[in-house]
Amino acid sequence: MAPISDNWPDVEASLEIMEPDFADRIISMVDQLQPHHPRIEAFASSFHPQRLPCRLLANHYTWGQSFLVFELLFSDNTSWIIRFGMRPMDAYFNTAAQLERKILNEVAALHLVRQRTTIPVPTIIAYHAHPSPSNPLGPNFPAFMLMTAITGMTIEDCGVAIHDMDSQSGVVFDTDPLGGDESKRPILQRYLRDIADIHVQLSRITFDRIGSFVIDDQGKVTVGPGADFGLGPFDSAKEFGRRGRGRA
């Protein structure tokens, strides 16, 4: 099986079109982690059921606003993903406190989805939500999340041009998403049923407060302050509308 990261965007091309400050934020973290790849690989292998060795695929990484992302490929060709929290962009975005809330929210959300639905989601293997001396990778390592990877196919891979459908109503515009091939209709129908089922299952996960999820060491999930700015939690939509948007 080919590495999952083979499908990620080209690193050099992506960096070239970025603002220099943003690109430097990524490149500097890649350089910071480079000497520590063996430690990261050993850490991941220690969680594998058979303790299989793995290698961090260093030349093809990706990123978002908050995390630098690498693939770890094991000797049996299975893959895990490790995400490292990047340094703040300024005094307000991606601060250590904000990053910690984001990580705890994501860990808790995945836990809830796995616990309460049949929706396939990655399994969190290990995480450390803030830089600290107790970080299992080392005291100077950034916050991280280690998780399994899920592979699959897009609807376009199946020959259905779903991008030609209205994202709000599902109404086909100018072209036939099936390309005139009626044998593909069951694929489209199953796709739409699965999307509807996912929305229905997620709608059943409800709490009586508004904020972001937090999870404790026993796996109990509660609602805490919002991940972005640490506001809340709020007891009502009215309170969220008034205070959550910074109004007095």
TrEMBL record:
Database matches in InterPro entries: AGP_Transferase (IPR051678)
Origin superkingdom: Eukaryota
Protein name: Uncharacterized protein
